[in-house]
């Protein structure tokens, strides 16, 4: 069952072998459909699998879709919006949290919409360690190229109005952070 707008949910990231990778303590749901969840958080507690804890430094709008193998975190900073994009499994939601598998490959997008691909070494290491099937590797690289096209075309969460619209909506909730 999809969470309700205004509800706070936990986000859990896993690795291919089923081990927990990272947990975001709470994100407020701004839009919730069976194939799409848009959320927001600000200075949220993050727990790492190695036991470390830290807080995010800025407000963020999160974009999760079950139609593609990626998710996007839009970080609102004083010098513009930075995007951190995870190549991941499509999300699922249960009564515990929103969950996905993180496949290491990431794209960091800067406010001027230039971008870099990150963690290719980590992906290669985990692909061998966890025996990613060839078909999975092909899917992940195809999705990486789809994500690059979205950035170049300013599609979805990269469109000029996306972050402003959803951040303004987030600020209308009582006790938004």
TrEMBL record:
MF (Gene Ontology): hydrolase activity; metal ion binding
SUPFAM superfamilies: FomD-like
Keyword Magnesium recorded: yes
UniProt keywords, alphabetically: Hydrolase, Magnesium, Metal-binding
Transmembrane segments: none
The keyword Magnesium is annotated on this UniProt entry: yes
InterPro entries named in the record: DUF402 (IPR007295), FomD-like_sf (IPR035930), Ntdp-like (IPR050212), SA1684 (IPR016882)
Domain annotation DUF402: ranges: 17-155
Source organism, top-level taxon: Bacteria
PANTHER family registered for this protein in UniProt: PTHR39159, UPF0374 PROTEIN YGAC (PTHR39159:SF1)
NCBIfam families: PRK13662.1
Protein name per Swiss-Prot or TrEMBL: DUF402 domain-containing protein
Native source organism of the sequence: Piscibacillus halophilus
């Amino acid at each position: 069952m999809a969470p309700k707008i205004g509800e706070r949910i936990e986000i859990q990231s896993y690795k291919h072998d089923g081990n927990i990778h990272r947990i975001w303590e709470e994100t407020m749901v701004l839009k919730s459909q069976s194939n799409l969840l848009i959320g927001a958080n600000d200075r949220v507690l993050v727990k790492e699998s190695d036991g470390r804890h830290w807080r995010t430094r800025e407000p963020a709008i999160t974009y999760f879709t079950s139609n593609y193998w990626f998710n996007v975190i839009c970080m609102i900073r004083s010098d513009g919006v930075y995007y951190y994009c995870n190549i991941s499994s499509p999300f699922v939601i249960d009564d515990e949290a929103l969950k996905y598998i993180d496949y290491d490959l990431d794209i960091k997008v800067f406010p001027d919409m230039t971008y870099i691909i990150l963690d290719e070494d980590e992906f290669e290491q985990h692909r061998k360690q966890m025996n990613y099937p060839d078909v999975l590797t092909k899917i992940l690289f195809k999705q990486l190229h789809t994500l690059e096209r979205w950035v170049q075309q300013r599609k979805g969460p990269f469109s000029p109005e996306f972050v402003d619209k959803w951040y303004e909506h987030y600020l209308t909730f009582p006790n938004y952070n």
